[in-house]
Structure formats: C-alpha cells, structure tokens
C-alpha cells in the first residue's frame, strides 16, 4: 500500500492530521462529560490535557468498563457550560457526531471493511477533516489558546528551558543525589575480613587485581590510542563481571519477594555489589564481540534488555506457561498481560510467538462454547496477523536496538501506517482513521458504544492490540501502565521511546546539551530522561532498599553515588569499578579544593553562598578515597596468597591514584609500618618493597627503604654483604664506604681477613668468590648500584686477597719456588691497595674529590705490611717487588710525609692501634704494657682513651668517627670481644709487627722501609747490569 501512495497527497494529509498521530504520555482520565471532537490542531496539546481532566473529574461518570486505551470521540454535557468557549466546542462536536451517525450503516460498514482494496489511499476518507478545519479554523485557534492545558504546557516548556539554561554543559541535575549521599555516607565501609565472599575471598581479590593490572598493561600508555583503551576496558569489564557473578552465585540467597529490585535487603553484601557493578559496567562497556563487529558499543537498550532478562526477571517462566496453557494460550487470563510485558522488556520474538500460537479457534467461554467463530474469528486472525507482521518488521526482533538508526525510523513510519490500516479495518471505511492514544476518548459516549457495536473485531482484543501498537510507538502511558516497577518502566521507555517525535519536557533539556556528545552519552541522557519520566509518575522508589537507590543513581547518571554504595558492600568491586570509570572518564574527577579560609564556614554559611561542604570524596575524588580505603584494608592482611603480602598489593593499588601527593603520603604511611616490623632476616620483603616503589616511580622512597634496612643490618647483625648491597641500592656511597672502612679497619688492625670466611653471609661470599657474575646479576636490578658496589668493593677485596695469599704461605715448604711465587702475588696485591690509599694525597696534596676506594687513614699501616716483602732475602735471592711497585711505595711514602698534619696524624693514630693489637705484644714489651693495652691507650698527643676490650678509639679520631657511624655500641662490643679474640688467634703466613720493637714510631718504620726499598732497587740495578754484561 505504501508504494502506491501519492507523495504530495500524503504530505498534505500528514500536515493536517500529523499531530493526531502523536502518542500521549499517560492514559486519559475518566469521568468527563459533554461532547466535542478534538481538531487536528488541538491534538498537539494532548499529553498535557490529562492534567486538566484531573481537576474537572465528575464522580458521576465512573464506569468500570471504561476503555483507557482506545482513541475516539469524547462527550461533554452541553447544558452546564455557558461560556463562549464551551459553546464553540459543543458546536464542533455536535456537528461531527451528526455527520458520523448520518454516514454510519452497519451492513454497509461491514461490507466495506471486508472489501477494502489494499491499493486504496488510507487518507482519502479523511478529506472531510480538512474542510471542517478550514471552516472553523478561527474558532479552533481561540479555543486552543484559551484551554488551561495549553497554558500549562507553555509553563512546563518554559521551566524546562530555564532548567536547561541553568545546567552547564556536561552537568546533570540529579533528583536523588542528596538522598543517596545521605544514605551511603552513613553506611560503614566494607572490610576484607567479612564473610561476604566466603572461602574464595582472597582468590577474588587476587584475580580482580590481575585483571586491573592487565588493563593498565594493555590499554594504558602514552602511545596507546583511545580505541585500544576502550577495547581493553570492555574486555576487563566483561571478565570482571563474569568473575564476580560466578562468586555471587555461590553465596546463599535468602528467600524474598520475587518482585524485589536487586538481591534484597538481607542478601549477602557481595551479591549486592556484584548486581550493581554488573549494571554499571554494562551501561558503559557492553561491546559486540565477534569477527564482524570490531568491538562496537552495544546500544544501551539492547544491553539493558539483556540485563533485565538475566538479573531482573521475577516471572521468567510466565511466557512458557502461557504458551503451554490449554485449551489455548489465548484462554489464559495472563495472555495479553504477558504479551505487553515481554514487549516492554524488548522480547519481541516472544510477543510474536504468543500471538502466532494464541489458538483463537480454541478459546472457550466458561460454559464450554467457543468464543470466536465464523467471520469474527477470521477478522481476529487478520487483525492479529497484521500485528504480527508489524512486529516482525521491528528491528528489535532481529536484535537491532540502535533506536536512532534508519531501520527504526522506517519501522516507526510503517508501524503508524499499520495501525491506520488496522483501525480502518476494525471500525469501517466511513469512520476514517482515529489515532490511538487520544485522551478525549470516553467509554460512556454514544459514539463509543456505537463503535463497539459495529467493530469488526471484539472490542477487548482491539484494545489490547492498541496497547501493542502504542508500546512499539514508545507511548509512555502504555508502558507505565504495563510495567511492574520503575526499573522495568525506565528500561521500557528507554528502549521504545520515539525521541524523534517527542521533544517536550525533560527530553528537551537533555537534547539541548546533546551537541558534540557521543552516542553512549546520548543513550545515557535518554535513560536519565526516561527514568525521570517514570519517577515523576505513580512509581516510587523504596528508599529502604539500598540496591534500589544504587540502581536509581545509575539510571539518573549519578555514578559517584553508585560507587558510594559499592564500597559499603565490597571494596575489591568498588575499587575496580572506580578505576575503570576513571579511565573511561564517566566517573567525575575530584573537585577543586575550596580556599582554606572557607574551612571555618558552617553549613549555614555555605548554604547562603550556594556551596556544599567538601568532604574527602569531593576533595580527593571518589576513586582515590575508595582506593585508599581498599589499600588500608589490604595492608592489614598478612598474606594474600603464598607469594604475596597484603601490603604489597596495597602499594600497587595506591600507585594507581590520580593524586600523586596522596598516593605518596599513603604509601609512606603504610610502608613505614611495614619497615618498623621487619628484622634482619626480611631481605625478601625489602626487595619487594624496593621493586614496587621503583615501578611506581617513587625512587626516593625506594632508596630510603633500602637505606633503612641497611641501617638495621649494620646495627643488629654482621651481614656486611647485605648491608653493602642495600646501601648501594639506596645510592649512598658514603655509607658503603663506611662499611668497607670498618672491614678494612679490623683487617689491618689484626693483620688478617675480616670477617672470617665462616662468618661471611651468602651475598658477601658470592661477591668475593664470583665477583663478576654476582655484579652482573645485581646490575639487572640496578645498574648504578652494581657499579657503585663493584668499584668501592675493589679495595677491600684486594686487601682480603692479599691476606688470603699470605696465609697460604703456611701450606708450602719454606724457600720453595711456590713460596716465592706466593710472596710475589701477595706483594702485587698489597701494592695495589697502597696505590689506592695514596690516591687522595697524590703529590702531597689532599684532594677528597679523587674519591679513592681505600681511605688514606690506612696508608701507614699498609706500608707496614710491606716491611716483610722489602729487603728480606739474601743477596743471592731475587727481589720480591718490581721496580714499578717500588716506585709506587716510594711515592706513597713521599706523599704521606709531605701531606698536611691532620692526615698524617690520623695515619699515625691508626698505626699505633695496629701496633697495640699485636698478639703477645711487641718485642721488648713488659706486662705493664700489656695491661696498659687492655685498659687505656694514649692518643697521638698523649691523651688517655678508655677501652672496653682489646682496643680503644679516641673520640677525636677520624677512625673513631667512622666506626661510630657504622655500628652501635652493642655491635662494637661484640666485635671487640668475641670476634677480636678470634682474630687475635688466627694463623698467619707472617705478621709484619713481630719484628718491631717497643717504642718504634711511624717515622722509624718509614725510614726502615725507605732503606729496604733502596737496597732492593740497587739489587735490581746490579742484576740488570749483570744481565747486560752476560749478553
């Protein structure tokens, strides 16, 4: 039929009758009297006129058989209205009624209804409407302007425009925001020790964290594009919802009323959180996942219809029960109600199945006779088949819910045309088309009774078919009348609403801010507008049901309130949803902090200023406050899984805060508590802390953590290798130097290795035994730290190598070639250490910037170790040191004797300590000297220094200050006592102090060393001359 229409004729008729086709927002009120026919122009205010009917209702007009859905003529009693407007209305209606009755003939109408030509123009029989409108155009216009409905409509439009002008772009005027905030602010925060997720609680926490980390790793980055991020968020949202729903399904569900919105007030908190999170993530991140879609967003109506089918379907089996009803589904009292319900729930195919399998021929009355036979049955089947054909053309029956697409625009036009044909078929050719949903219809009118009597289809069936057409056309009143609760009504209106036609009221407000918004934002505005239409009708929220309030917040677009409810039920779910919302930018960011001067304002002052008091959620943002709360709970869990601590996961969570300052402050607070509880055996925990902090970019705090642990090791243990490494990780070269100076101090004092091999910790042993491989492994963790440790360890390692080589001399025969080789190896190692100690005073000038790895304070003692290797052989034996090595020794002596007095005095002071620690005392010492050594030792200037054990370090000494910074008094006593006694009895290949006499000072030792070097050098010259002569 549509293809045979004349486009110009159709446009003319559309202009005349188009406003009559507009569906009304609510069913018409009953109890009206009088008679008049609404003209085409009056139909423009049909959705507002119902408000006026409420005020003018007459109790005498109540009738239980009133049809609230059919469109047609209404009647008003004429005698009681005396004003000119009423007279004009009566005149129009009376003339229309007279024309209708003059043209009505029952037999002729039935015959014409059956023999309607499919090619006939549906608008031809309505031509008389144009003539009537032209004759009374002036009266109708005056009538339109004088009606209270028109005045109210203009007022509503003005209010909506004013509201739109007050709302800034991107803002929404939330109707329930304050109520929801007052409720969730009073709820206690969820804890991780609550039994809301049964024995799988830790598994849920770990898996949720893994999926969030995967989202950051795959979708977030400086070079990642928005499409990749959106795809990653959609994948994460789907997997998280499946995870939470799987866990929630295992929780006990107390029996509550089936029609409750959400799991119910007495359900487990985790079940509530899972239900709300599913809805919230579905609205924003539902995506098509197949080979043809490329991850396009799923239209919001389709997502919501699917969600209602799985999560809010109290009567899921009702459709099948009706289909299985005998003698026929149409005989079931819930038949039409079920069809209307499945339609507003988007289940178009179910509605088609119910209509196609209704079994009209089997419908029986109570007495057992068939209801419909003959021509009536044929007419019913034709009317129902036309409705089925209309529903089959609906894109929703094929899963297409892009309601702003071209398919839906075409369907709406075809649906209106289908209703016009059906109405003409049912009421006859001479009646013309009456738009469905006309609020002026009155079942008590004579015209209606005439129509009911002359209808080709039973009037009850026609009414219900009318409802079907009104639902698919997005009529608010029909959907509100059918829906069981506000949630079902909101989703139904969001799915079926024809926004291309209905641009009034709240919808106008949302459309004014629609410019530049994405399709998903437009859908969210559509849902919010539908929700406000519903809650402003007869539906009310149950404020005692927190799930209902949370769902209302989501429908309204107040996602901050939804997170507020979530964190009262489950912190893992709340934090994950908040992070996704922040990344997707649908969760509002934190507000700008008010000036500090306003902190003293009370609520009344702020109200006068039009401001609200800012809490943590407003200042730090809902995401950050939720994550901080979650992190604090995680930190209280000792172990999440076998290889992960609670504080470890808490630190990662805090690293994802938007506020860097808040993140660092909270991480410091949590990790300080952790560091306060560690001991010397907690190296694995410190390694984890360091790695996490470095990953978060908190380098400074990572170094502080490593330094704190190194201080603990230096104070309470002898794990010098661990202490060296963690000081290196902290990038503290001075503290690395202090530890190494301590080790060199004890080694030179007792002329042996310190610490002994059996006391080495694992890390120190690996550094000494396989230094290159160990440093290479450490460099994978921190290259700079490995380089620092490798460079500064070289001096101590070389000195230790000297002592180890020297002590191996005991295992070889004296005078053998092997013994000679050992001495030469020892001398080479010793000269290398001497060269390093001399580096800072090269040329007799002290220069600390040269950063020598061995302190110059040890130079005099190192030169003393060389006494045994200089001028100790017979004239015929080869010299142990080379000419180059002699040159190094001579330069060191010269530099030491020419450098400033402070450096030289420090060297002499340490030299005296070394001599005082000689096992058994020096040659010629008396018992009084031994007692003096054990009790007090004179400093270089003769001052007395008290000693607790085998040696004393004067407070004014440079070495004393180094030692005091390295170890505590308790550690010093342990070393000076037990360890010192062990070192004193150690076996040595030789001891350079044995040949010295009591009273020999540093100057005399240097003189002896100079003399020995001169003799060895002379011997080398003679050997060189002899070799030349022999040549």
Automatic annotation (TrEMBL):
Source domain of life: Eukaryota
Any Gene Ontology CC annotation: nuclear membrane
Cleavable signal peptide: none
Entry annotated with the keyword Cell division: no
Gene Ontology biological process terms from the UniProt entry: mRNA export from nucleus; positive regulation of DNA-templated transcription; protein import into nucleus
Pfam family, one: Nucleopor_Nup85
Localization in the cell: Nucleus, Nuclear pore complex
UniProt biased composition (Low complexity): 21-32
Region annotation (Disordered) ranges: 1-81
Bias (Acidic residues): 45-66
A Gene Ontology molecular function term of the record: structural constituent of nuclear pore
Main location: nucleus
UniProt entry keywords in alphabetical sequence: Membrane, mRNA transport, Nuclear pore complex, Nucleus, Protein transport, Translocation, Transport
General function of this protein: Functions as a component of the nuclear pore complex (NPC).
Subunit composition and interactions: Component of the nuclear pore complex (NPC).
PANTHER family linked: FROUNT PROTEIN-RELATED, NUCLEAR PORE COMPLEX PROTEIN NUP85
Entry's family note: Belongs to the nucleoporin Nup85 family.
Protein name: Nuclear pore complex protein Nup85
């Amino acid at each position: 039929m549509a293809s045979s229409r004349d486009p110009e004729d159709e446009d003319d008729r559309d202009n005349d009758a188009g406003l009559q086709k507009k569906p009304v927002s609510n069913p018409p009120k009953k109890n009206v009297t009088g008679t008049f026919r609404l003209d085409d122009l009056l139909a423009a205010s049909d959705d507002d006129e119902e408000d006026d009917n409420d005020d003018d209702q007459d109790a005498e007009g109540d009738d239980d058989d009133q049809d609230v859905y059919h469109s047609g003529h209404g009647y008003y009693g004429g005698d009681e209205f005396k004003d000119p407007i009423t007279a004009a209305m009566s005149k129009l209606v009376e003339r229309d009624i007279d024309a209708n009755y003059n043209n009505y003939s029952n037999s002729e109408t039935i015959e014409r209804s059956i023999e309607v030509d499919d090619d006939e123009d549906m608008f031809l029989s309505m031509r008389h409407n144009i003539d009537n409108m032209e004759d009374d155009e002036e009266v109708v216009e005056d009538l339109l302007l004088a009606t209270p409905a028109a005045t109210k409509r203009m007022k509503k439009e003005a209010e909506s425009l004013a509201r739109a002008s007050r709302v800034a772009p991107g803002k929404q005027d939330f109707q329930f925001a304050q109520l929801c905030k007052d409720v969730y602010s009073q709820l206690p925060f969820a804890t991780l020790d609550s039994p809301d997720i049964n024995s799988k609680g830790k598994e849920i926490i770990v898996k949720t964290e893994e999926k969030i980390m995967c989202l950051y790793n795959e979708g977030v980055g400086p070079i990642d594009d928005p499409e990749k991020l959106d795809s990653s968020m959609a994948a994460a949202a789907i997997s998280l919802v499946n995870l939470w729903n799987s866990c929630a399904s295992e929780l006990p569900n107390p029996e509550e009323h089936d029609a409750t919105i959400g799991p119910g007030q007495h359900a487990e908190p985790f079940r509530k959180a899972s239900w709300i999170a599913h809805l919230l993530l579905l609205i924003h991140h539902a995506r098509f996942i197949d080979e043809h879609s490329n991850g396009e967003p799923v239209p919001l109506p389709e997502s919501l219809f699917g969600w209602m089918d799985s999560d809010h379907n109290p009567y899921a089996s009702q459709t099948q029960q009706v289909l299985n009803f005998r003698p026929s589904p149409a005989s079931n009292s819930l038949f039409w109600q079920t069809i209307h319900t499945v339609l507003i729930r988007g289940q178009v195919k179910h509605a088609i199945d119910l209509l196609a399998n209704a079994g009209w021929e089997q419908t029986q009355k109570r007495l057992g006779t068939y209801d419909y036979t003959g021509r009536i049955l044929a007419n019913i089947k034709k009317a129902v088949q036309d409705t089925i054909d209309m529903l089959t053309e609906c894109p929703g029956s094929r899963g297409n819910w892009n309601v702003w697409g071209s398919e839906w625009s075409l369907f709406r036009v075809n649906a209106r045309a289908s209703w016009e044909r059906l109405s003409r078929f049912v009421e006859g050719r001479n009646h013309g088309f009456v738009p469905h949903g006309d609020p002026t219809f009155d079942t008590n009118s004579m015209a209606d009774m005439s129509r009911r009597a002359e209808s080709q289809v039973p009037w009850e069936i026609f009414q219900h078919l009318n409802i079907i057409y009104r639902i698919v056309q997005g009529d608010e009143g029909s959907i509100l009348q059918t829906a069981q609760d506000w949630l079902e009504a909101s989703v139904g209106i969001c799915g079926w609403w024809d926004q291309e036609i209905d641009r009034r009221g709240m919808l106008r407000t949302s459309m004014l801010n629609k410019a530049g918004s994405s399709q998903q934002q437009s859908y969210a505005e559509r849902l919010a507008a539908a929700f406000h239409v519903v809650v402003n009708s007869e539906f009310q929220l149950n404020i005692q049901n927190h799930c209902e309030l949370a769902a209302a917040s989501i429908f309204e677009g107040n996602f901050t309130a939804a997170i507020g409810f979530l964190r009262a039920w489950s912190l893992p779910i709340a934090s994950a949803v908040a992070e996704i919302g922040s990344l997707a930018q649908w969760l509002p960011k934190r507000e700008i902090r008010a000036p500090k001067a306003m902190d003293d304002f009370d609520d009344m002052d702020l109200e006068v200023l039009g401001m609200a008091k800012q809490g943590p959620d407003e200042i730090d943002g809902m995401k950050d406050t939720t994550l901080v709360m979650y992190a604090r709970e995680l930190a209280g869990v000792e172990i999440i899984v076998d290889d992960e601590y609670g504080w470890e996961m808490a630190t990662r969570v805090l690293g994802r805060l938007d506020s860097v300052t808040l993140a660092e402050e909270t991480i410091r607070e949590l990790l300080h508590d952790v560091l306060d509880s560690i001991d010397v055996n907690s190296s694995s925990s410190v390694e984890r802390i360091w790695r996490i902090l470095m990953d978060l970019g908190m380098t400074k705090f990572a170094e502080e953590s490593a330094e704190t642990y190194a201080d603990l090791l230096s104070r309470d243990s002898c794990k010098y290798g661990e202490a060296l490494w963690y000081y290196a990780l902290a990038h503290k070269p001075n503290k690395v130097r202090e530890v190494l100076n301590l080790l060199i101090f004890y080694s030179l004092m007792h002329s042996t290795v310190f610490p002994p091999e059996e006391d080495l910790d694992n890390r120190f042993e690996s550094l000494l035994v396989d230094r290159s491989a160990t440093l290479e492994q450490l460099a994978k963790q921190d290259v700079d730290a490995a380089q620092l440790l490798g460079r500064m360890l070289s001096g101590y390692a070389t000195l230790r190598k000297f002592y180890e080589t020297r002590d191996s001399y005991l295992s070889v025969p004296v005078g053998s070639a092997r013994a000679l080789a050992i001495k030469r190896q020892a001398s080479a190692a010793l000269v290398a250490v001497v060269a390093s100690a001399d580096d800072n005073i090269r040329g007799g000038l002290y220069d600390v910037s040269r950063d020598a790895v061995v302190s110059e304070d040890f130079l005099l003692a190192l030169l003393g170790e060389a006494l045994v290797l200089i001028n100790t052989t017979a004239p015929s034996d080869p010299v142990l040191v080379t000419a180059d090595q002699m040159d190094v020794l001579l330069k060191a002596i010269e530099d030491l004797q020419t450098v400033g007095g402070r450096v030289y005095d420090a060297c002499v002071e340490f030299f005296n300590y070394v001599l005082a620690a000689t096992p058994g005392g020096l040659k010629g010492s008396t018992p009084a000297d031994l007692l003096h050594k054990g009790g007090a030792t004179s400093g270089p200037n003769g001052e007395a220094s008290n000693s607790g054990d085998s040696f004393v370090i004067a407070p004014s000494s440079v070495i004393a200050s180094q030692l005091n910074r390295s170890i505590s008094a308790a550690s010093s006593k342990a070393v000076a006592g037990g360890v010192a006694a062990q070192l004193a009895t150690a076996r040595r290949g030789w001891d350079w102090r044995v040949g010295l006499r009591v009273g020999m000072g540093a100057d005399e030792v240097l003189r002896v060393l100079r003399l020995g070097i001169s003799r060895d050098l002379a011997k080398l010259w003679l050997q060189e001359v002899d070799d030349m002569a022999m040549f």
